[in-house]
Amino acid sequence: MTSVISATGLWTPENSISNEELVESFNAYVDKWNAENAAEIESGEKLPLSHSSAEFIFKASGIKSRFVISKGPILDPDTMAPRIPARENSEPSILAEIAVHAAKDALSKAGRKPEDVDAVIVACSNIQRGYPAVAVEVQDLLGAGGFAFDMNVACSSATFGIETARGLIAGGQAKSVLVVNPEICTAHLNFKDRDAHFIFGDVATAILVEDKSVAPKAHWEVMGSKLVTKFSNNIRNNFGFLNHAAPEDDGFHGERGQKGLTDKLFVQNGRSVFKEVVPMVAKMITEECAANGIDPNELKRMWLHQANINMNLLIAKKVLGKEMDLEQAPVVLDEYANTSSAGSIIAFNQYSDDFAPGETGLICSFGAGYSAGAVFVRKVG
User: Fold this and answer.
1) Residues 6+ apart with CB under 8 A from 164
2) Secondary structure class of 298 (helix, strand, coil)
3) Which run of H or E residues covers position 285?
4) Which residues form the catalytic set?
5) Which strands make up the sheet holding 219-229, listed edge to edge?
């Protein structure tokens, strides 16, 4: 059985925060904190916090703005975190709601009805609860059949989800699998951390993976794929029901790595991540190209994970042996920021309409774990 990608879908929040808006809020917080701790700073007990800048953010990441579900509270110097109202159990959860939006977009593009779907996989970094599975809720809200489950491989969840869907199809469990990636990344971001306050945004994407026998005439044949994981603490988030911080434990004001609330949010050793992940991903792509008889330079496009423009440039250079043309590896993180597993799918969704039948491309993810996934596709029809 040959698996294909029949369509992708995208849902984007209404509100966006520019670097300039984010920096204004962050710097107001810094000024307030430094003033409140002036005595300890003067005595050397504490170090003063430093301002951020739009120029620093863009140079470090290539990000110019990010879409968010909760804008006002993030920009409030006294809050600096999203505030999403709790919902009754009888109401759709926020994660399921945005997943359904992206799912319906993908189904519409493929001319599919929800009842045509045999399985739903919610594959994302930030699953809002342990159980019932958000995927089962998405299945119910859509009116899809079959079965559903959640999975988390951090920023590689989408590519791992595609390969999982292929396995279900190959095993005869399903012919049409909907992989959805609802990412509310701002909920695990420490907006008081100068080195990371700009990184993430919110979004939802969807991928409809189907057996070729039921796919629409125009689709993307999956030529091959590769999944890799290697344990590392260099990107970590310790939040969970076993270890939540006490309300009075305000770790935001401490040094990076201090236990408390800071330890329950996104933390990373950026330099080590860059040094270790770039060669790991370049090697995976190069070896998998060789295994599938693909010349990397014949890839019309590489839809790479949208985390950091400098990482993408170096990965592409190592794979292609030359400087990358941004048309060949398009960037969406300037507008969306890092959206974890959804990033490469946004890029694919936005920059794939110009492919002619027979042309090939690569969907590639990499992130915490470490994890990395490569899915090679060929346009058909």
Assistant:
1) 121, 123, 151, 179
2) helix
3) helix 270-291
4) 155
5) 147-151, 119-123, 176-184, 202-211, 3-11, 219-229, 371-380, 360-367, 299-304
Whether the ω angle into residue 370 lies within 30 degrees of 0, i.e. cis, is yes
For residue 102, which of 34, 195, 204, 3 has the smallest C-alpha distance? 204
Q: How confident is the model at residue 6 (pLDDT cuts 50, 70, 90)?
A: very high
219 and 4 Cβ atoms separated by less than 8 Å: yes
DSSP per position, 51-92: ---HHHHHHHH---EEEES-HHHHH-TTT-S-------TTSP
Beta strands in the chain (DSSP E): 3-11, 15-18, 65-68, 119-123, 147-151, 176-184, 202-211, 219-229, 235-236, 267-268, 299-304, 360-367, 371-380
pTM above threshold 0.85: yes
Domains (range + CATH), the chain:
222-236+264-380 (3.40.47.10)
**Model pLDDT for residues 54-70, shown as the tens digit of each residue:** 999 999 999 999 999 99
Q: What are 348's two structure tokens? A: 């694919």
327-to-281, 313, 374 alpha-carbon distances in Å: 20, 12, 19
Name the 3-class secondary structure at 309: helix
**Counting Cβ atoms within 10 Å, is residue 59 exposed (0-12), middle (13-18) or buried (19+)?**
exposed
The DSSP bridge pattern shows strands 219-229 and 371-380 to be: antiparallel
Total H helices, total E strands in the chain: 11, 13
pLDDT digit string, tens, across residues 305-344: 999 999 999 999 999 888 878 788 999 999 999 999 999 9
Rounded distance, CA 376 to CA 294, Å?
9
What gap in Å lies between CA 57 and CA 187, rounded to an integer?
A: 20
